[in-house]
Protein backbone atom coordinates (compact mmCIF):
# COMPACT_ATOMS: atom_id res chain seq x y z
CA UNK A 1 0.00 0.00 0.00
CA UNK A 2 1.43 3.37 -1.03
CA UNK A 3 2.03 5.97 1.62
CA UNK A 4 -0.14 9.08 1.16
CA UNK A 5 1.65 12.36 0.46
CA UNK A 6 0.59 15.93 1.15
CA UNK A 7 -1.05 16.18 -2.28
CA UNK A 8 -3.26 13.21 -1.45
CA UNK A 9 -4.42 14.73 1.84
CA UNK A 10 -5.15 18.07 0.20
CA UNK A 11 -7.04 16.34 -2.58
CA UNK A 12 -9.20 14.39 -0.13
CA UNK A 13 -9.95 17.56 1.83
CA UNK A 14 -11.02 19.39 -1.35
CA UNK A 15 -13.08 16.43 -2.52
CA UNK A 16 -14.93 15.96 0.78
CA UNK A 17 -15.57 19.72 1.19
CA UNK A 18 -16.89 20.03 -2.35
CA UNK A 19 -19.25 17.09 -1.99
CA UNK A 20 -20.46 18.25 1.43
CA UNK A 21 -21.52 21.59 -0.05
CA UNK A 22 -22.91 19.96 -3.17
CA UNK A 23 -25.09 17.52 -1.22
CA UNK A 24 -26.22 20.26 1.14
CA UNK A 25 -27.33 22.42 -1.76
CA UNK A 26 -29.08 19.49 -3.43
CA UNK A 27 -31.16 18.93 -0.28
CA UNK A 28 -31.92 22.64 -0.09
CA UNK A 29 -32.87 22.74 -3.79
CA UNK A 30 -35.27 19.80 -3.53
CA UNK A 31 -36.87 21.23 -0.38
CA UNK A 32 -37.05 24.72 -1.89
CA UNK A 33 -38.63 23.36 -5.05
CA UNK A 34 -41.37 21.66 -3.02
CA UNK A 35 -41.96 24.78 -0.92
CA UNK A 36 -42.25 27.05 -3.96
CA UNK A 37 -44.78 24.70 -5.56
CA UNK A 38 -46.85 24.66 -2.37
CA UNK A 39 -46.89 28.46 -2.05
CA UNK A 40 -47.62 29.04 -5.73
CA UNK A 41 -50.55 26.62 -5.51
CA UNK A 42 -52.24 28.83 -2.89
CA UNK A 43 -51.45 32.03 -4.79
CA UNK A 44 -53.52 35.08 -4.02
CA UNK A 45 -55.74 33.19 -1.56
CA UNK A 46 -53.19 33.82 1.23
CA UNK A 47 -54.14 37.52 1.13
CA UNK A 48 -57.73 36.85 2.16
CA UNK A 49 -56.81 36.02 5.77
CA UNK A 50 -56.00 39.65 6.66
CA UNK A 51 -59.07 41.37 8.09
CA UNK A 52 -57.36 44.57 9.24
CA UNK A 53 -54.22 45.96 7.68
CA UNK A 54 -51.62 47.39 10.12
CA UNK A 55 -49.72 50.66 9.68
CA UNK A 56 -46.50 50.33 7.70
CA UNK A 57 -43.37 52.47 7.49
CA UNK A 58 -41.39 51.93 4.29
CA UNK A 59 -37.72 52.90 4.58
CA UNK A 60 -35.69 53.63 1.43
CA UNK A 61 -32.03 54.54 2.06
CA UNK A 62 -30.57 56.48 -0.87
CA UNK A 63 -27.05 57.77 -1.52
CA UNK A 64 -26.47 59.36 -4.96
CA UNK A 65 -29.39 57.51 -6.54
CA UNK A 66 -30.70 60.10 -9.02
CA UNK A 67 -30.77 57.51 -11.84
CA UNK A 68 -33.13 55.08 -10.09
CA UNK A 69 -34.78 56.65 -7.03
CA UNK A 70 -37.66 58.24 -8.99
CA UNK A 71 -38.77 54.92 -10.47
CA UNK A 72 -38.43 53.20 -7.10
CA UNK A 73 -40.43 55.78 -5.17
CA UNK A 74 -43.23 55.74 -7.77
CA UNK A 75 -43.36 51.92 -7.60
CA UNK A 76 -43.61 52.02 -3.79
CA UNK A 77 -46.38 54.63 -3.98
CA UNK A 78 -48.24 52.34 -6.41
CA UNK A 79 -48.28 49.36 -4.04
CA UNK A 80 -51.70 47.80 -3.51
CA UNK A 81 -52.08 48.80 0.14
CA UNK A 82 -54.42 51.21 1.99
CA UNK A 83 -52.84 54.65 1.51
CA UNK A 84 -53.85 55.82 4.99
CA UNK A 85 -51.92 52.90 6.49
CA UNK A 86 -48.55 53.52 4.86
CA UNK A 87 -45.85 56.15 5.29
CA UNK A 88 -42.83 56.29 3.00
CA UNK A 89 -39.53 57.57 4.42
CA UNK A 90 -36.63 58.19 2.04
CA UNK A 91 -33.28 58.82 3.70
CA UNK A 92 -31.33 60.99 1.25
CA UNK A 93 -28.01 60.13 2.85
CA UNK A 94 -25.35 62.76 2.13
CA UNK A 95 -26.01 62.65 -1.62
CA UNK A 96 -23.96 64.94 -3.84
CA UNK A 97 -25.95 64.40 -7.04
CA UNK A 98 -29.51 65.35 -8.01
CA UNK A 99 -31.24 62.82 -5.69
CA UNK A 100 -32.77 65.52 -3.47
CA UNK A 101 -34.40 67.38 -6.37
CA UNK A 102 -35.85 64.16 -7.82
CA UNK A 103 -37.36 63.32 -4.43
CA UNK A 104 -38.81 66.79 -3.94
CA UNK A 105 -40.47 66.71 -7.37
CA UNK A 106 -42.16 63.38 -6.62
CA UNK A 107 -43.15 64.51 -3.14
CA UNK A 108 -44.80 67.58 -4.68
CA UNK A 109 -46.58 65.46 -7.33
CA UNK A 110 -47.91 63.11 -4.63
CA UNK A 111 -48.82 65.80 -2.12
CA UNK A 112 -51.75 63.74 -0.83
CA UNK A 113 -49.46 60.87 0.26
CA UNK A 114 -47.50 60.48 3.48
CA UNK A 115 -43.94 60.93 2.19
CA UNK A 116 -41.01 62.03 4.32
CA UNK A 117 -37.64 62.95 2.87
CA UNK A 118 -34.81 63.08 5.39
CA UNK A 119 -31.63 64.66 4.05
CA UNK A 120 -28.40 64.13 5.98
CA UNK A 121 -24.98 65.75 5.63
CA UNK A 122 -21.44 64.48 6.09
CA UNK A 123 -21.76 64.79 9.87
CA UNK A 124 -25.10 63.08 10.47
CA UNK A 125 -24.97 60.75 7.46
CA UNK A 126 -22.69 59.11 4.93
CA UNK A 127 -21.73 56.45 7.48
CA UNK A 128 -23.25 53.41 5.85
CA UNK A 129 -26.62 51.85 5.16
CA UNK A 130 -27.14 50.83 8.80
CA UNK A 131 -26.83 54.42 9.97
CA UNK A 132 -29.25 55.61 7.29
CA UNK A 133 -31.79 52.94 8.25
CA UNK A 134 -31.50 53.89 11.93
CA UNK A 135 -32.22 57.52 11.04
CA UNK A 136 -35.29 56.47 9.07
CA UNK A 137 -36.46 54.10 11.80
CA UNK A 138 -36.24 56.82 14.46
CA UNK A 139 -38.51 58.99 12.32
CA UNK A 140 -41.04 56.23 11.62
CA UNK A 141 -44.31 55.39 13.35
CA UNK A 142 -45.62 52.21 11.70
CA UNK A 143 -46.39 48.97 13.52
CA UNK A 144 -44.18 47.22 10.98
CA UNK A 145 -41.05 48.36 9.14
CA UNK A 146 -40.44 47.53 5.46
CA UNK A 147 -37.15 48.15 3.66
CA UNK A 148 -36.57 48.58 -0.08
CA UNK A 149 -33.29 49.48 -1.75
CA UNK A 150 -33.19 52.59 -3.91
CA UNK A 151 -33.14 50.61 -7.19
CA UNK A 152 -36.19 48.45 -6.44
CA UNK A 153 -39.53 48.26 -8.22
CA UNK A 154 -41.73 46.01 -6.07
CA UNK A 155 -44.70 44.29 -7.66
CA UNK A 156 -48.08 45.74 -6.63
CA UNK A 157 -49.09 42.91 -4.30
CA UNK A 158 -45.65 42.31 -2.77
CA UNK A 159 -46.27 44.37 0.38
CA UNK A 160 -49.62 42.67 1.03
CA UNK A 161 -47.95 39.26 0.76
CA UNK A 162 -45.33 40.30 3.32
CA UNK A 163 -47.97 41.72 5.69
CA UNK A 164 -50.37 38.78 5.41
CA UNK A 165 -47.54 36.38 6.25
CA UNK A 166 -46.18 38.21 9.30
CA UNK A 167 -49.53 39.05 10.90
CA UNK A 168 -50.55 35.41 10.53
CA UNK A 169 -47.95 34.12 12.99
CA UNK A 170 -46.61 35.69 16.20
CA UNK A 171 -43.44 33.57 15.92
CA UNK A 172 -42.33 35.52 12.85
CA UNK A 173 -40.07 38.41 13.78
CA UNK A 174 -39.55 39.21 10.11
CA UNK A 175 -40.64 37.99 6.68
CA UNK A 176 -38.59 38.26 3.51
CA UNK A 177 -39.70 38.35 -0.11
CA UNK A 178 -37.41 37.80 -3.05
CA UNK A 179 -35.77 40.08 -5.58
CA UNK A 180 -35.42 39.42 -9.29
CA UNK A 181 -32.92 40.81 -11.80
CA UNK A 182 -34.57 43.62 -13.76
CA UNK A 183 -31.70 44.05 -16.25
CA UNK A 184 -30.95 40.33 -16.67
CA UNK A 185 -30.79 40.50 -20.47
CA UNK A 186 -28.25 43.33 -20.58
CA UNK A 187 -25.15 41.16 -21.04
CA UNK A 188 -23.52 37.87 -20.03
CA UNK A 189 -22.71 39.13 -16.54
CA UNK A 190 -26.29 40.09 -15.71
CA UNK A 191 -27.51 36.74 -17.07
CA UNK A 192 -25.09 34.93 -14.75
CA UNK A 193 -26.25 37.11 -11.83
CA UNK A 194 -29.86 36.28 -12.64
CA UNK A 195 -29.14 32.54 -12.51
CA UNK A 196 -27.09 32.93 -9.33
CA UNK A 197 -29.90 34.90 -7.66
CA UNK A 198 -32.56 32.34 -8.53
CA UNK A 199 -30.58 29.27 -7.52
CA UNK A 200 -27.93 30.05 -4.90
CA UNK A 201 -29.94 32.73 -3.14
CA UNK A 202 -33.69 32.18 -3.46
CA UNK A 203 -33.86 28.43 -3.89
CA UNK A 204 -31.45 28.06 -0.96
CA UNK A 205 -33.60 30.41 1.14
CA UNK A 206 -36.72 28.40 0.29
CA UNK A 207 -34.98 25.16 1.14
CA UNK A 208 -33.69 26.42 4.47
CA UNK A 209 -37.17 27.66 5.36
CA UNK A 210 -38.85 24.40 4.34
CA UNK A 211 -36.34 22.18 6.14
CA UNK A 212 -35.26 24.21 9.17
CA UNK A 213 -37.64 27.17 9.45
CA UNK A 214 -34.80 29.69 9.06
CA UNK A 215 -33.98 32.43 6.55
CA UNK A 216 -31.46 35.24 6.34
CA UNK A 217 -32.77 38.75 5.71
CA UNK A 218 -31.60 40.18 2.36
CA UNK A 219 -30.83 43.88 2.04
CA UNK A 220 -34.22 44.65 0.54
CA UNK A 221 -37.88 43.59 0.32
CA UNK A 222 -38.50 42.48 3.89
CA UNK A 223 -40.81 43.36 6.76
CA UNK A 224 -39.93 43.35 10.46
CA UNK A 225 -41.96 44.03 13.60
CA UNK A 226 -41.42 47.45 15.14
CA UNK A 227 -41.28 45.85 18.60
CA UNK A 228 -38.41 43.64 17.42
CA UNK A 229 -36.41 46.59 16.06
CA UNK A 230 -36.96 48.55 19.26
CA UNK A 231 -35.73 45.61 21.34
CA UNK A 232 -32.66 45.25 19.11
CA UNK A 233 -31.86 48.96 19.24
CA UNK A 234 -31.81 49.25 15.45
CA UNK A 235 -29.18 48.14 12.95
CA UNK A 236 -25.51 47.57 13.80
CA UNK A 237 -23.68 50.68 12.46
CA UNK A 238 -20.43 48.68 12.14
CA UNK A 239 -21.97 45.98 9.95
CA UNK A 240 -21.51 46.33 6.20
CA UNK A 241 -23.82 43.33 5.70
CA UNK A 242 -26.40 44.78 8.08
CA UNK A 243 -29.07 42.38 6.82
CA UNK A 244 -27.16 39.22 7.75
CA UNK A 245 -26.08 40.64 11.10
CA UNK A 246 -29.58 41.59 12.20
CA UNK A 247 -30.84 38.15 11.19
CA UNK A 248 -28.65 36.56 13.86
CA UNK A 249 -29.94 38.93 16.52
CA UNK A 250 -33.54 38.16 15.56
CA UNK A 251 -32.74 34.44 15.83
CA UNK A 252 -31.33 35.02 19.31
CA UNK A 253 -34.56 36.70 20.39
CA UNK A 254 -36.34 33.43 19.65
CA UNK A 255 -38.17 34.63 16.53
CA UNK A 256 -38.31 32.98 13.12
CA UNK A 257 -37.62 34.74 9.81
CA UNK A 258 -40.11 33.44 7.23
CA UNK A 259 -39.88 33.40 3.44
CA UNK A 260 -42.75 34.48 1.16
CA UNK A 261 -41.61 33.97 -2.48
CA UNK A 262 -44.75 35.61 -3.91
CA UNK A 263 -43.58 38.99 -2.56
CA UNK A 264 -41.37 40.02 -5.46
CA UNK A 265 -39.34 43.12 -6.18
CA UNK A 266 -37.20 43.78 -9.25
CA UNK A 267 -33.80 45.38 -8.86
CA UNK A 268 -30.93 46.52 -11.01
CA UNK A 269 -27.77 44.40 -10.87
CA UNK A 270 -24.18 45.37 -11.79
CA UNK A 271 -23.55 45.51 -15.51
CA UNK A 272 -19.74 45.56 -15.40
CA UNK A 273 -17.21 43.33 -13.65
CA UNK A 274 -15.70 46.32 -11.87
CA UNK A 275 -19.00 47.20 -10.19
CA UNK A 276 -19.80 43.51 -9.56
CA UNK A 277 -16.47 42.95 -7.80
CA UNK A 278 -17.01 45.99 -5.61
CA UNK A 279 -20.53 44.92 -4.63
CA UNK A 280 -19.74 41.24 -4.03
CA UNK A 281 -16.55 42.05 -2.11
CA UNK A 282 -18.66 44.21 0.21
CA UNK A 283 -21.02 41.27 0.71
CA UNK A 284 -18.14 38.91 1.48
CA UNK A 285 -16.51 41.45 3.81
CA UNK A 286 -19.78 41.98 5.66
CA UNK A 287 -20.61 38.29 6.00
CA UNK A 288 -17.12 37.52 7.30
CA UNK A 289 -17.67 40.27 9.90
CA UNK A 290 -20.88 38.52 10.98
CA UNK A 291 -19.18 35.11 11.04
CA UNK A 292 -16.38 36.48 13.21
CA UNK A 293 -18.80 38.36 15.49
CA UNK A 294 -20.91 35.29 16.24
CA UNK A 295 -18.29 32.53 15.79
CA UNK A 296 -18.03 31.89 19.53
CA UNK A 297 -21.71 30.91 19.53
CA UNK A 298 -20.83 27.77 17.59
CA UNK A 299 -19.69 26.39 20.94
CA UNK A 300 -22.40 27.89 23.14
CA UNK A 301 -25.55 28.71 21.14
CA UNK A 302 -28.67 26.74 21.98
CA UNK A 303 -30.59 28.23 19.06
CA UNK A 304 -30.43 25.81 16.13
CA UNK A 305 -31.04 28.62 13.64
CA UNK A 306 -27.90 30.45 14.76
CA UNK A 307 -25.83 27.28 14.72
CA UNK A 308 -26.92 26.19 11.24
CA UNK A 309 -26.37 29.59 9.67
CA UNK A 310 -22.94 29.91 11.27
CA UNK A 311 -21.96 26.53 9.84
CA UNK A 312 -23.55 27.53 6.54
CA UNK A 313 -21.47 30.72 6.24
CA UNK A 314 -18.39 28.83 7.42
CA UNK A 315 -18.94 26.27 4.67
CA UNK A 316 -19.30 28.94 2.00
CA UNK A 317 -16.43 31.24 2.96
CA UNK A 318 -13.96 28.71 4.39
CA UNK A 319 -14.65 25.22 3.04
CA UNK A 320 -15.77 26.25 -0.44
CA UNK A 321 -13.03 28.84 -0.94
CA UNK A 322 -10.24 26.59 0.32
CA UNK A 323 -11.44 23.51 -1.58
CA UNK A 324 -11.65 25.38 -4.91
CA UNK A 325 -8.23 26.96 -4.38
CA UNK A 326 -6.67 23.62 -3.49
CA UNK A 327 -8.32 21.92 -6.48
CA UNK A 328 -6.94 24.57 -8.84
CA UNK A 329 -3.45 24.36 -7.33
CA UNK A 330 -3.41 20.54 -7.54
CA UNK A 331 -4.52 20.73 -11.17
CA UNK A 332 -1.76 23.20 -12.09
CA UNK A 333 0.93 21.34 -10.16
CA UNK A 334 -0.08 18.12 -11.89
CA UNK A 335 0.34 19.78 -15.27
CA UNK A 336 3.64 21.55 -14.76
CA UNK A 337 5.51 19.66 -11.99
CA UNK A 338 6.26 16.13 -10.82
CA UNK A 339 3.93 16.50 -7.82
CA UNK A 340 1.11 14.03 -8.40
CA UNK A 341 -1.79 12.45 -6.55
CA UNK A 342 -0.86 8.84 -5.67
CA UNK A 343 -4.31 7.73 -4.49
CA UNK A 344 -5.81 4.87 -6.44
CA UNK A 345 -9.31 5.23 -7.79
CA UNK A 346 -11.11 6.86 -10.66
CA UNK A 347 -11.47 10.33 -9.16
CA UNK A 348 -12.06 11.91 -12.55
CA UNK A 349 -15.49 10.26 -12.62
CA UNK A 350 -16.25 11.69 -9.16
CA UNK A 351 -15.36 15.20 -10.30
CA UNK A 352 -17.43 14.82 -13.49
CA UNK A 353 -20.37 13.56 -11.43
CA UNK A 354 -20.14 16.58 -9.12
CA UNK A 355 -20.19 18.90 -12.16
CA UNK A 356 -23.22 17.11 -13.64
CA UNK A 357 -25.08 17.43 -10.31
CA UNK A 358 -24.23 21.13 -10.20
CA UNK A 359 -25.73 21.66 -13.66
CA UNK A 360 -28.85 19.64 -12.82
CA UNK A 361 -29.35 21.44 -9.51
CA UNK A 362 -29.27 24.90 -11.10
CA UNK A 363 -31.32 23.82 -14.13
CA UNK A 364 -34.10 22.49 -11.88
CA UNK A 365 -34.31 25.88 -10.20
CA UNK A 366 -34.85 27.65 -13.53
CA UNK A 367 -37.93 25.56 -14.30
CA UNK A 368 -39.85 27.36 -11.52
CA UNK A 369 -39.52 30.79 -13.10
CA UNK A 370 -41.47 31.67 -16.22
CA UNK A 371 -39.22 32.19 -19.23
CA UNK A 372 -35.99 31.19 -17.44
CA UNK A 373 -35.75 27.52 -18.44
CA UNK A 374 -34.50 28.06 -22.00
CA UNK A 375 -31.57 26.80 -24.07
CA UNK A 376 -29.56 29.98 -23.59
CA UNK A 377 -29.74 29.79 -19.78
CA UNK A 378 -29.01 26.04 -19.74
CA UNK A 379 -25.89 26.73 -21.81
CA UNK A 380 -24.86 29.45 -19.35
CA UNK A 381 -25.30 27.00 -16.47
CA UNK A 382 -22.93 24.51 -18.15
CA UNK A 383 -20.11 27.07 -18.30
CA UNK A 384 -21.01 28.84 -15.05
CA UNK A 385 -18.84 26.68 -12.78
CA UNK A 386 -15.71 27.29 -14.85
CA UNK A 387 -16.30 31.03 -15.28
CA UNK A 388 -18.64 32.97 -13.00
CA UNK A 389 -18.24 30.69 -9.97
CA UNK A 390 -14.46 30.96 -10.17
CA UNK A 391 -14.71 34.73 -9.81
CA UNK A 392 -16.04 34.16 -6.30
CA UNK A 393 -12.58 32.98 -5.27
CA UNK A 394 -11.21 36.45 -5.90
CA UNK A 395 -14.23 38.04 -4.22
CA UNK A 396 -13.90 35.92 -1.08
CA UNK A 397 -10.15 36.58 -0.80
CA UNK A 398 -10.65 40.32 -1.28
CA UNK A 399 -13.46 40.25 1.28
CA UNK A 400 -11.25 38.56 3.86
CA UNK A 401 -8.39 40.98 3.24
CA UNK A 402 -10.77 43.93 3.48
CA UNK A 403 -12.21 42.66 6.75
CA UNK A 404 -8.78 42.09 8.30
CA UNK A 405 -7.56 45.49 7.14
CA UNK A 406 -10.61 47.24 8.62
CA UNK A 407 -10.18 45.29 11.84
CA UNK A 408 -6.51 46.18 12.23
CA UNK A 409 -6.97 49.84 11.26
CA UNK A 410 -10.22 50.10 13.28
CA UNK A 411 -12.02 51.74 10.39
CA UNK A 412 -15.64 52.80 10.72
CA UNK A 413 -18.13 51.36 8.24
CA UNK A 414 -18.73 53.59 5.21
CA UNK A 415 -21.45 53.75 2.58
CA UNK A 416 -20.50 51.26 -0.11
CA UNK A 417 -22.76 52.18 -3.00
CA UNK A 418 -23.34 50.07 -6.09
CA UNK A 419 -23.03 52.14 -9.25
CA UNK A 420 -26.31 52.48 -11.14
CA UNK A 421 -26.87 52.37 -14.88
UniProtKB/TrEMBL annotation:
| Superkingdom of the source species | Bacteria
Protein family according to the UniProt entry: Belongs to the glycosyltransferase 2 family.
Ranked from the top, the taxonomy reads: Bacteria, Bacillati, Bacillota, Clostridia, Eubacteriales
Its name, as the record gives it, is Glycosyltransferase family 2 protein
Coiled-coil stretches:
none
Q: Which InterPro entries match?
A: Nucleotide-diphossugar_trans
Q: Which PANTHER family match?
A: POLY-BETA-1,6-N-ACETYL-D-GLUCOSAMINE SYNTHASE
Cytoplasm as a keyword?
no
Keywords of this entry? Glycosyltransferase, Membrane, Transferase, Transmembrane, Transmembrane helix
Instruction: List where the protein spans the membrane.
Output: 12-35, 310-336, 348-366, 378-404
Amino acid sequence: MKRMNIMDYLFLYALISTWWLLLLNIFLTISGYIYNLDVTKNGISVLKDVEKYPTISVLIPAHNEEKVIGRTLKAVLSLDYPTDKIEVIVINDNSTDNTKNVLEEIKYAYADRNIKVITTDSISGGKGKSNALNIGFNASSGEFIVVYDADNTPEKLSLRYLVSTIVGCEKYGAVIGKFRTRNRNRNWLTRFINIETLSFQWMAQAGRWKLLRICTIPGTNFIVRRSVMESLGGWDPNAIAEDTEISFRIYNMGYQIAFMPLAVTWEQEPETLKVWFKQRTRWANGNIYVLAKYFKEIFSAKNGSVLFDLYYFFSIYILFLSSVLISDVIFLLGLFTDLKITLSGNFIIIWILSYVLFVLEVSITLTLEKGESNYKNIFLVTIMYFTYCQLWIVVAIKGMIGYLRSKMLKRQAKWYKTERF
